[in-house]
Write a structure and sequence with these properties.
The structure holds two protein chains of two kinds.
Chain A lengths: L3 E4 L2 E4 L5 E7 L5 E8 L3 E10 L2 E4 L7 E2 L9 E3 L8 E8 L9 E2 L3 E5 L1
Parallel strand pairs in A: 2-11
Antiparallel strand pairs in A: 1-3, 3-8, 4-5, 4-9, 5-6, 7-8, 9-10, 9-11
Chain B lengths: L2 E4 L4 E4 L4 E3 L1 E4 L5 E7 L5 E7 L5 E4 L2 E4 L9 E3 L8 E8 L9 E2 L3 E6 L1
Parallel strand pairs in B: 2-12
Antiparallel strand pairs in B: 1-4, 3-9, 5-6, 5-10, 7-8, 8-9, 10-11, 10-12
Classes of the chains: A mainly beta, B mainly beta.
């Protein structure tokens, strides 16, 4: 089944404790992206990658890191999480190396930073 | 920069009522436009899209027409069902200005009552 998977789905952590949210897609898509969803703010793009070893900042990259060493994986790293990073996070992928075609979203990761 | 403005919610309708969710955008180029739907507890999925002026996207009884003259992409459905209850996001991506960035509206929550 074609899909985007994220792990973990739920995470409660404490301020300053490094964490990684994994994202994997099995559709051989070039483009991958991370978003956060907050009430009243919609979806905001954190980072995106148009191909392996190519990443760029979205609208809200502060406090996040990403890497794209393989086509299928695009982990989101929070080196020192803070409470304002409490949010619902979505990973997405798309076939061309751009965001201008349909994006396929993962099920989301709900992160709480205490 | 690019922006998307969606009709504020929440929207509550009775079953079989007509639905319109307004979406207007600002973009410097000629963006692709999308409507995504998010059912409770799930990730976003594409509802419909349009890639050039006057294109009409349609799916599951929903329609939206790309109106360049009014920079709009309003979502309509003639007769909503309880199963249409979800959050709807308007989004754009502009290959000419930045092929990796996606801009989403704040989302409109629709509740359909029997």
């Amino acid at each position: 089944e074609a899909q985007v998977t994220q792990n973990p789905r739920y995470l409660i952590t404490v301020t300053g404790k490094k964490l990684t949210v994994t994202c994997s897609q099995n559709m051989n898509h070039e483009y991958m992206s991370w978003y956060r969803q907050d009430p009243g703010l919609g979806l905001r793009q954190i980072y995106y990658s148009m191909n392996v070893e190519v990443t760029d900042k979205g609208d809200v990259p502060e406090g996040y890191k990403v890497s794209r060493k393989e086509k299928r994986n695009f982990p989101l790293i929070l080196e020192s999480p803070s409470p304002n990073q409490t949010s619902l996070y979505f990973c997405a992928s798309s076939s061309p190396g751009t965001s201008t075609d349909t994006q396929y979203f993962g099920p989301g990761t709900r992160l709480t930073v205490l | 920069g690019d922006s998307v403005t969606q009709m504020e919610g929440p929207v509550t309708l009775s079953e079989e009522a007509f639905l319109t969710i307004n979406c207007t955008y600002t973009a410097t180029g000629y963006p692709s436009l999308f409507w995504y739907v998010q059912y409770p507890g799930e990730g976003l999925q594409l509802l419909l899209k349009a890639t050039k002026a006057d294109d009409k996207g349609s799916n599951k009884g929903f329609e939206a027409t790309y109106r360049k003259e009014t920079t709009s992409f309003h979502l309509e459905k003639g007769s909503v069902q309880v199963s249409d209850s979800a959050v709807y996001f308007c989004a754009l991506s502009d290959l000419e200005t930045n092929a990796g960035k996606s801009t989403f509206g704040d989302g409109t929550t629709l509740t359909v009552k029997p």
